[in-house]
Every structure is written in C-alpha cells, then in structure tokens.
Amino acid sequence: MVRDRYPSLLLEQAIDAFAKLPGVGRKTAMRFALHVLRQDEEEVDGFVRAIGTLRHEVKYCRVCHNLSDRDVCDICGDKQRDRGLVCVVEGVRDVMAIESTQQYNGLYHVLGGVISPMEGIGPGDLEIDSLVRRTQEEPVREVILALSSTMEGDTTGYYIWRKLQSTGVKLSIIARGIAVGDELQYTDEVTLGRSIKDRTPFTGVQ
Amino acid sequence: MVRDRYPSLLLEQAIDAFAKLPGVGRKTAMRFALHVLRQDEEEVDGFVRAIGTLRHEVKYCRVCHNLSDRDVCDICGDKQRDRGLVCVVEGVRDVMAIESTQQYNGLYHVLGGVISPMEGIGPGDLEIDSLVRRTQEEPVREVILALSSTMEGDTTGYYIWRKLQSTGVKLSIIARGIAVGDELQYTDEVTLGRSIKDRTPFTGVQ
Question: Nearest CA to A108 among A85, A134, A140?
Fold first, then answer.
C-alpha cells in the first residue's frame, strides 16, 4: 500500500496518534484530525486536558480496584449496600453493566482482566490475591463469579475456586441459560443443556 | 435513555471529550477512554501533544490555503510544477486525492468548503476572493473546478464562473461520466446522459 503523502507533518503526527485508538483506521483518524482543526483552540485544549487528566489522575478503589476519583469508590463507601456479597468481575464495564440492571446490592471486586496465556496474563497480573485477602479480612459471606463465559473466564473462575476453597467462603456463579427474548430453537445446545440442568423453581411469574 | 452512571468523573469527562469526535458514540468513547488507561503515561502525553500541537501550530499556505507546516506549502514551492494551472478544490482531502492520481502537475486553490446556505456558509467564508486575486496577480492560464458533483458544489462553481468571467482566464471543470470499472446498465441516467454529451475522441487506447 502506498502511504498517503500528507501536506503537513503536524497533520500526519496527529493522524498517527488517532490511528492508535482501537478500531480507528487512517481514514477515520484523518477525519478526527480535520475535525480538531475546525474546533476553537479552547475546545481542543479541553479535549486534550480531559484525556491527559484521566490518565494522570485517575485512581483505583483500594478495596474493589474499580476506577474511582477517591481512595475508596462510591459503591464500597455506600453503607446501604450488603457488605457480605462480593461480585467478581473482569473490568469497569462489567460493574457498570451489572449496576444498570439494578438487581444487585452487594459490593464488587474488579480483577483487571482474566487469565489468558495467549496474551501473557497470569494470575499474578490480576487482583486475585487481594480478593482472597478480602474474604479473610472482611465479613464476606458469598463471592459471586460474574466472568465472561469464555475459556479465559472459566479458567479464571476455576483458579479463584481453588484459591477460595480453604477459606470456607461460599462461591457462586451467575446463571447461564437462554437469554431473555431468545427463541429456544436458535439457542446453541451447550447453553440449552445448561439451562435445563440449572432449572429453577417456577412460581407463576418470571 | 438512562444515562450511565460512571464510577469516576474523570472517566466521564474523557468519554464526553471522545464522544465529540465525528461518528463516535458513547460506547466507542468508553472504549477509547479505557484504552487510554491501559497506555503508559508517556504514550498518552505523546497522543495529547500531537493533537494540541496540530491545532495550535498548523499553518495554511498563503498562496493556495492548503494545510502546511510553512508559510508556502510544498506544492506551491515546487518549481517543477505548471504555475499556469490552478485546480480549485473544497478541502485538504481533495488535494491528497488528486495528488495520489499522479495525473496533475499544476497548483491548487483550497476554498475551505463550498457555498451552503443550509449550513450558513456563504462566498465570504471561502477563499474565493483570494482565487480571483490570484488569477490577476499570477500568470494563471487556466482554472480547473474540481468540486463535488452536488448542489453545493455546482452553486460554488457557478459563483466562481461569474466572478472569473471578467478576468478572461480560461475556466474548465473536471469530466463527469461513468466511473472506470462501472457497468453501463447500473449508471444513473443523468451521469450517462452527461457522459454521452461530453464524449471525447477515441484514439484506440484508454
């Protein structure tokens, strides 16, 4: 591929920068750069400041390791929440997804990833030791695994199960079954088998 | 729509910033922000610097108004180019597109947009007066209109034609016809009609 000849080195450098964002190719990066040129200088300064500030000043909650502006995040600091429940998730987005269901009132523990030999991520790179410590030092009744239903997620769940066995804390995993709104005939057989095996008592309403 | 509750104000501000880029929604902006958090601080500083520098330090060529790192751009400064030809385009991307054809050896004139009453862009917002001045002060033989084949592009072309009539400079427009590789039966009738009307002598090779 012939590399485009840009009229300005500054433009080329900005395009290089934007093209490093995930899923952004050089055409989109060019569109972003030309957009920046159409903005007021103050607007661009605000844009740049928001991103620099995020990287330099963001904190992670020292209890659950979720993103936070303070030492302890709003969820861990909330006295209304059930402190006996800890839901283990991979990342920030999972916390937001579960929070938006409004079905959970416990705390979280953000691992910062899942075990993935392919990407060179081992247990030591994740917040697993701090999870074990937490179950010992805090009044944790139950740990809920809410990881992706992938090989990496399952491996991580198994590793945590091994680590928590000796602590005596109850370990559960979120239900796997057919998605709400899905048709039975289009559900894959592994999921369908799982949903039959893990059937729950029916009480007339869903 | 319920607005997501973000765990960190800094994260939310960075997402707000990214979501202002064209075509970027809040989900993509979130992905960008989490990507930023995974980068080294130096990398993020470099990203931010490239964008800030582009906005603050970019120049526009004082002859053709294309983006440039110097007062006069590389194309206008190139003594090998035919200074009697000026190709009028809407923006930077058009210059790059024509340059990549390697079929043009003249100079350019970047209008910075096209006349668009809908968007409040009038002739005074564009580099049209400077084009007229250029045809009078420089040895310009021919002005080539290379604008989009839209109502706005046609309006702008017509306006420039009116302005240049008294100067006596030759005005031409890039050919409109069926695209190379296109099948005749799928070409719209306006384009096809135009391509018959503007037929060119056939010399055995294309």
Answer: A85
A135-171 pLDDT per residue, tens:
999 999 999 999 998 999 999 999 999 999 888 899 9
**C-alpha torsion angle, residues A34, B16, A67, A78 (rounded to 10):** 180
B47, B53, B93 member nearest A10 (Cβ): B53
- Report the chain B residue with the minimal C-alpha distance to residue A93: B30
* pLDDT tens per residue across span A35-79: 999 999 999 999 999 999 999 999 999 999 999 989 999 999 999
Which candidate from B11, B14, B51 shows the least CB-CB separation from A36?
B51
Low-confidence ranges of chain B (pLDDT < 50): 1-3
Instruction: Write out the H or E segment, with its range, that includes residue A130.
Output: helix A129-137
State in Å, rounded, how far the first CA of chain B is from the last one.
Answer: 56
Q: Smallest Cα–Cα separation from A142: which of A161, A166, A169?
A: A169
Contact call for B67 and A31, based on CB within 8 A: no
Q: What are residue B22's phi and psi, to 5 degrees?
A: -65, 130
- Minimal Cα–Cα distance from A204 to chain B, Å? 30
Are B11 and A67 a contacting pair at CB < 8 A?
yes
**Is the ipTM, as predicted for this complex, more than 0.85?**
no
* Entry pTM: 0.79
Quick one: DSSP state of residue B171? E
Domains of chain A: 9-57 (1.10.8.420), 67-201 (3.40.1360.10)
Q: DSSP for A42-63?
A: HHHHHHHHHHHHHHHH-EE-TT
Of A14, A34, A68, which is closest to B7 when you measure between CB atoms? A68
Q: Are A31 and B47 in contact (CB under 8 A)?
A: no
